[in-house]
Amino acid sequence: MGFGGRAPSGSRVEPWPGITGGNGMSWLTNFVRPTLRRWISPRVLREAQWVTCPKCGATVFHRDLDANWRICPHCDHHLTLSAARRFDLLLDAESWARIEIPGAPADPLKFRDARRYGERLKEAAAQSREAEAVAVAHGRIDGRGAVIAAFEPHFLCGTAGAAAGEAVVAAAELAVLQDAPLLVVTGSQGPRIPDGAFALLQLPRVILALRKVAERNLPLIVVLADPAFDPISEALLQQADVVLAEPEARLGPPPADPFAPMDTPAFLAPRGGVVGAAAARRRGRIDRIADRRDIKAEIAAILDILCRPFPSATILAYPGQETKLIDAAPDA
Ligand SMILES: [Zn+2]
């Protein structure tokens, strides 16, 4: 074939190596953007970005949104909040520390879909600055000790795999050890299929760990933050003593196609059976809906009631019988 001539019919024209890949990705997205990202600190890059509110469409400066706990200043829509900011929001300043989570097997099945799962894990850790999709911290909420496990919605969409289960179990065990209430904040798009059976095995472990918390009469408070589409969150919502929800937070079943790669529209597609916070409250699945900025005060008030020692109760006997005083303390 001469220069400028036509390729013979049926022959495949190979793209120029280095400029366009076979999958249509350009040199700009393959090389220039990653190189720029390596040079410029991710924090500077993030703060200089604008975010479009998914509800009202207003464009908000990232820094302003962060300062407002990622609540849209125009329509009060609650955008996803990272686990680190969640700890800042709920725990007293300088009162809290993170817990190192026991290591779960990373990529036990050497899974691969469009990309290697191991690569996705590394990229998610770099972008979210979390080791996994659930982070655990212990600290004080208005002076009262508590353990918090928070889903990180920016780590592979908060998908619950083996490590997420380990983290919730570790948080529950720490709550029992410290005799402290347990708080869990949801934020997961579904189960993590690449962990296979290792992810499935976590559900009974989580349920058993929560049972130990209940046996010690320690409160379990779940904050429903959007979304909660994974089985671990479902178990937590069922076992919780009190469920608070952020406005418009959704709970529901796993994705219609859980085997789809985690960052694709097929995985994130709308699915049947999803319930919003208001509808869930009408069905009795949620106790209260509160603005993100008020949730700490709400939790403090609830803990004040749930952790208060039982006063002695006076039981009035039927006429003709003596009035008895009984001590209703839990250890009586
Ligand atoms: Zn808005």
Task: Describe the structure in brief.
By secondary structure, the protein is of the alpha/beta class. The protein has helices at residues 27-39, 42-47, 62-67, 83-90, 117-128, 162-178, 197-200, 202-215, 231-239, 265-268, 277-282, 295-306, and strands at 50-52, 59-61, 97-98, 134-141, 144-151, 182-185, 220-224, 242-245, 250-251, 275-276, 288-289, 313-315, 324-326. The chain folds into two domains: 39-79, no CATH class; 81-306, 2-enoyl-CoA Hydratase, Chain A, domain 1 (Alpha-Beta Complex), CATH 3.90.226.10.
Structural notes for this entry:
The chain is an alpha/beta fold. The protein has a seven-stranded mixed β-sheet with strand order 3-4-5-6-7-8-11, sandwiched between helices. Strands 1-2 form a two-stranded antiparallel sheet. It has a two-stranded antiparallel ribbon with strand order 9-10. It is built from twelve helices and 13 strands. It has two domains: 39-79, no CATH class; 81-306, 2-enoyl-CoA Hydratase, Chain A, domain 1. The radius of gyration is 25 Å and the shape is globular. The longest helix is centred in the middle third of the chain and has 17 residues, at 162-178. The site of zinc ion has 8 residues, from loops. Zinc ion is lined by residues 53, 55-56, 58, 72, 74-75, 77.
